[in-house]
């Protein structure tokens, strides 16, 4: 059977009390060109952010002094395009989302591409939080296993 995504690592708490959470819908199939959406919910509204991934394993390094986030993806990392979280400023209703398979299909030289069934990737989101001591925050991590 398919290996479901696994949540790991610790999300930081933003200055408005948000804890950004990674999740996924669909199947990360190496034979598909779309249909696997990774998303980060509970992001502060109206903030710029990115989803990024790595293929070297999980990581757990403090993000910076005075910040509760951890950098959960072992470098090197591949950044997906930046986007606005939408939602409402000061609320935890923002979302960052990308179809990872569509990104990989249109970026053949992206880190780890082409993936093989059984290979893993580790994902996380980064987003602006200007009042925070580090001016940014991070979500938890999400480990995925590519399927045939």
Helix fraction by DSSP (H/I, runs of at least 4): under 10%
Q: Please compute the radius of gyration using only Cα atoms.
A: 15 Å
Our count of helices gives: 1
Distance between the termini: 11 Å
Q: Based on helices, strands and strand pairing, what is the structural class? A: mainly beta
Which consecutive residue ranges, at least 5 long each, have pLDDT under 50? none
Q: How many strands in all? A: 11
Average pLDDT number: 97
Strand content: 35-45%
Largest sheet: 6 strands, antiparallel
Overall 3D shape: globular
Instruction: Please trace the helix and strand order, writing H or E for each element.
Output: EEEEEEEEEHEE
Please characterize this protein's 3D structure:
The chain is mainly beta. The protein is built from one helix and eleven strands, in the order βββββββββαββ. The strands form three sheets. Strands 1, 4, 7, 8, 10 and 11 form a six-stranded antiparallel sheet that branches. It has a three-stranded antiparallel sheet with strand order 2-3-9. Strands 5-6 form a two-stranded antiparallel ribbon. A hairpin with a 7-residue loop joins β10 (120-128) and β11. The longest helix has 7 residues, at 100-106.
């Amino acid at each position: 059977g398919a290996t479901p995504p696994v949540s790991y690592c610790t999300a930081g708490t933003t200055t408005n009390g948000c804890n950004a959470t990674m999740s996924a819908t669909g199947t990360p199939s190496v034979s598909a060109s779309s249909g696997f959406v990774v998303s980060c919910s509970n992001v502060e509204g109206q903030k710029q952010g990115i989803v990024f991934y790595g293929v070297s394993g999980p990581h757990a390094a403090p993000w910076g002094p005075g910040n509760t986030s951890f950098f959960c993806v072992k470098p090197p990392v591949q950044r997906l395009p930046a986007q606005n979280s939408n939602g409402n400023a000061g609320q935890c209703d923002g979302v960052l989302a990308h179809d990872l398979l569509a990104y990989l299909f249109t970026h053949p030289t992206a880190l780890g591409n082409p993936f093989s069934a059984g290979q893993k990737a580790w994902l996380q989101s980064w987003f602006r939080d200007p009042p925070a001591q580090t001016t940014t925050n991070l979500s938890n991590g999400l480990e995925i296993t590519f399927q045939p």
